[in-house]
């Protein structure tokens, strides 16, 4: 994977008057340039969104960005290990409460397609859909967006119209939906929920800001529907296992990403099964033909 040059790892970038971004040094095929931590607020107190991995250098970079301000809330969109592990040491250093998504730890025997879940995450307060946290000149409102994970939240900065989208919507890549916790039906419903909003800009945890949110969400929904049609076309040729379907559906991708692609195919198949369109015996999936 070729990454952009001169990445500002560990340096605070002001991306709008109340928002600064700090990039963690954890680039990968699934995190792109790394996890982007956001510091919201420029007054007496601030919120830290997605503090990232428990990397001492990244934690120090966050503290340097915060400066003399008080951290009113350490907020996590979800609990994959590239997002929330720094919450506990940052809270220990500052006394700030951890507020945001619910805790989740899920055992998964399938091939991992993304970062595993953070077992250290222990929120002081869990935000329900529509609940908010406020500070000096800022308000962050929770927008429940399950799908990538069952506990995923986006966070809306009410004063500026920005939405921090975590891994739900990213400009550089589609989000991995990995069962059993990742759920395609929930993900599509969450995309539809965002489509009804009028957010000005998205700030994802990985990759560049999304300046055309409505257009991107429409495209992502269309992409998922196209993948579903691909799954059905594959099964029209006869029963198949996922490893046989992936190379046909994802032509040209790096074979190292076949595992991740297979998890998304499985998510589509589970959704189709729940809708009565397909069935499976063991690892082999087939269409259910009507009379």
TrEMBL record:
<dbReference type="InterPro" id="IPR036866">
    <property type="entry name" value="RibonucZ/Hydroxyglut_hydro"/>
</dbReference>
<dbReference type="Pfam" id="PF17778">
    <property type="entry name" value="WHD_BLACT"/>
</dbReference>
<feature type="domain" description="Metallo-beta-lactamase">
    <location>
        <begin position="34"/>
        <end position="206"/>
    </location>
</feature>
<dbReference type="Pfam" id="PF00753">
    <property type="entry name" value="Lactamase_B"/>
</dbReference>
<dbReference type="InterPro" id="IPR036388">
    <property type="entry name" value="WH-like_DNA-bd_sf"/>
</dbReference>
<dbReference type="InterPro" id="IPR050662">
    <property type="entry name" value="Sec-metab_biosynth-thioest"/>
</dbReference>
<dbReference type="InterPro" id="IPR001279">
    <property type="entry name" value="Metallo-B-lactamas"/>
</dbReference>
<dbReference type="InterPro" id="IPR041516">
    <property type="entry name" value="LACTB2_WH"/>
</dbReference>
<protein>
    <submittedName>
        <fullName>MBL fold metallo-hydrolase</fullName>
    </submittedName>
</protein>
